[in-house]
Design brief:
Distance between the termini of chain A: 26 Å
Structural class of chain A: mainly alpha
Radius of gyration of chain B: 27 Å
Number of strands of chain B: 0
CATH architecture of the largest domain in chain A: Orthogonal Bundle
Strand content of chain B: under 5%
Strand content of chain A: under 5%
Order of helices and strands of chain A: HHHHHHHHHHHEHEHE
Radius of gyration of chain A: 23 Å
CATH architecture of chain B: Up-down Bundle
Number of domains of chain B: 1
Strand order of the largest sheet of chain A: 2-1-3
Number of helices of chain B: 14
Largest sheet of chain B: none
Helix content of chain B: 55-70%
Number of strands of chain A: 3
Helix content of chain A: 40-55%
CATH class of chain B: Mainly Alpha
Largest interface: A-B, 69 and 61 residues
Order of helices and strands of chain B: HHHHHHHHHHHHHH
Distance between the termini of chain B: 80 Å
Oligomer: heterodimer
Number of helices of chain A: 13
Structural class of chain B: mainly alpha
């Protein structure tokens, strides 16, 4: 069956401007090496980070430069289709960053100013960034339709990296990343609880189906390290039981790790350093457990 | 003196600005590294595949075709007609005129008559569709209006205000051979000529650089060779701070009951 394509809505200016994420909490920000609260010299910090990002990512500089504003991406973003807010069109979302880029990093923007869409980095602009760059799920659908492959996820990631450097981030994302460094997964299931849940599932399987199947945890020397979504150990337990049955039937020795029992990486929604730090937990767990393969459950 | 400025100094300097500007833009983009593999899938796995994909992107804009049929029709016909018109103009710069340039003269002529049509449609689209109107800025209109003026003046030169082409050819050949003549052209030809020079000067600093940028776009020019390691040139080590309750050392201690796991 072919799904009907939703028609582009008529634009409603400002329709989603009040849909903002809760700001990050100090206790989480210190755990993820970010300023605990927005910096007093936020403007310098953001512009400095922006210069760094432009020099580190060809994608960001190129995508800001070559967009022709054809509007092919406009009606492809689910956030625009859902809210009808024009700033949720990928091209307009990138414009939020582009206008500041033009003002501080291009000759045309410095000379022609507002006529060339260049704009100062003011508190209002930062507020817009915080609102609309957190209304992008980095799904990259726009990149598929753009004739030059302009990937708004790269722009969104750059803007979030710049905001994070000045101490601006959302509660949801920072909380989850901080939990990974404390408990090993996004939900904050502590190692003892993880082991207990696995033991419970073993018992449960024995009682209900009479099957004697193990749920190994931290088994050094197993062949496979399984990375389930941590919710599989907690709410979607049928999936967890499914993994165990599958490994049992295939005769593969496997294990989960209390150090890293999550495949999802919320660092992607924050900045490069945390993206890497969360990902490194997978490698570290695999190294310490001396497994041969890593299976992604999610 | 004014004519010399217009027909000798201006063309040489605009071509120089165009070439140096384009080189500068490429250099600036190439200077920033590509830290990650961000290819837009489904993507080819080999370099040859990437080359074919890129040729496809340049020739018929498949992504745009998926996105918006009307926009695709407008831009595709505009770019195709533009190429034909540019190739037709080669007869002014080459002596003797190669056979294939002679072959496409008629095709190029009709392309020239038609080219204002897609440009007008693209301009109308900017004004009519609310979301496209919202994102359009001065530069978008400027590029379209310059091209419209350029092409309309070209059509008028062909149909109503015909210029003596032998003079035109002698003038361009003199420029090509660096022995510039200072001619005396009618006003419409001068306008047509000035618009081309303006476009050459404007090109490297504007969105018109999309034509070159495409080749460096990481989502289009990378391979989907996910099995090979991709090294980030500016990668840096990450460390755990004292606030993190579960650093790697603690895991080693937990599974080995001692700190021996760390040594490996």
């Amino acid at each position: 069956m072919k799904m009907p394509v939703p028609a582009a809505p008529e634009i409603k200016i400002g329709a989603a401007q009040r849909q903002r994420c809760y700001p990050a909490k100090e206790k989480d920000m210190v755990k993820i090496d970010l300023p605990p609260s927005p910096l007093p010299n936020w403007k310098e910090a953001m512009l400095q980070k922006m210069a760094e990002v432009l020099d580190k990512y060809r994608s960001v500089r190129l995508f800001l430069d070559i967009c022709v504003k054809c509007g092919a991406c406009a009606d492809k973003c689910q956030f625009f289709l859902g809210t009808a807010d024009p700033k949720n069109m990928p091209v307009a979302r990138a414009d939020l960053l582009r206008k500041v880029y033009k003002r501080y990093f291009t000759v045309g923007g410095k000379v022609w100013g507002r006529a060339n869409e260049a704009e100062e980095l003011t508190p209002d602009v930062v507020q817009e960034w915080y609102t609309y760059f957190y209304q992008c799920s980095e799904c990259r659908r726009c990149a598929v339709y753009c004739p030059y492959g302009i990937d708004t996820a790269e722009i969104t990631m750059a803007a979030r990296e710049i905001m994070a450097a000045a101490g601006l981030a959302t509660k949801y994302v920072t909380e989850v990343v901080a939990k990974v460094y404390d408990a090993g997964n996004n939900l904050g299931i502590w190692p003892a609880a993880w082991k207990d849940n696995c033991a419970f599932l073993e018992e449960d399987l024995k009682d209900t189906e009479g099957l004697d199947i193990k749920f190994p945890v931290d088994a050094v020397g197993a062949e496979v390290l399984l990375l389930p979504p941590s919710a599989d150990n907690f709410v979607n337990t049928d999936t967890m039981i499914g993994y165990a049955k599958m490994f049992h039937a295939a005769g593969i020795s496997w294990t989960t790790s209390t150090y890293c029992n999550e495949g999802g990486n919320f660092g992607l929604f924050l900045n490069y350093a945390n993206l890497k730090k969360v990902n490194n937990r997978i490698l570290e767990a695999a190294r310490q457990l001396r497994v041969k393969k890593i299976y992604w459950g999610e | 003196m004014g004519t010399k400025l217009l027909f000798v100094i201006l063309p040489y300097s605009s071509v120089a600005i165009f070439v140096l500007g384009v080189v500068y833009r490429f250099w600036r983009w190439a200077k920033s590294p590509v830290p990650m593999r961000i290819v837009a899938t489904p993507a080819p796995q080999t370099r040859r595949g990437v080359a074919w994909r890129m040729i496809g992107d340049v020739l018929w804009f498949p992504s745009l075709f998926k996105a918006d049929k009307f926009l695709w029709a407008g831009t595709f016909s505009f770019h195709l007609l533009l190429w034909l018109v540019i190739l037709r103009h080669l007869r002014f710069f080459l002596y003797p005129v190669p056979g294939w340039v002679q072959e496409i003269q008629t095709l190029g002529l009709y392309a020239g008559y038609l080219i204002p049509v897609p440009l007008a449609l693209l301009l109308a689209r900017r004004l009519v569709i609310d979301r496209v109107l919202y994102i359009s800025i001065l530069g978008d209109y400027l590029a379209l209006i310059m091209l419209l003026a350029l092409t309309v003046s070209g059509v008028l030169l062909q149909v109503f205000f015909r210029t003596y082409l032998v003079d035109v050819k002698a003038f361009f050949l003199s420029l090509v051979h660096f022995q510039p003549l200072v001619p005396d052209f009618p006003w419409l030809f001068t306008l047509h000529f000035l618009l081309v020079m303006a476009l050459l000067i404007y090109f490297p600093w504007s969105k018109l650089m999309h034509s070159g940028g495409l080749f460096l776009s990481p989502t289009r020019n990378q391979r989907a060779n996910f099995a090979q390691r991709f090294v980030n040139p500016w990668d840096f080590p990450v460390a755990y701070n004292s606030q993190n309750l579960f650093p790697p050392e603690k895991y080693a201690a937990a599974i080995f009951g001692s700190r021996e796991g760390e040594k490996e």
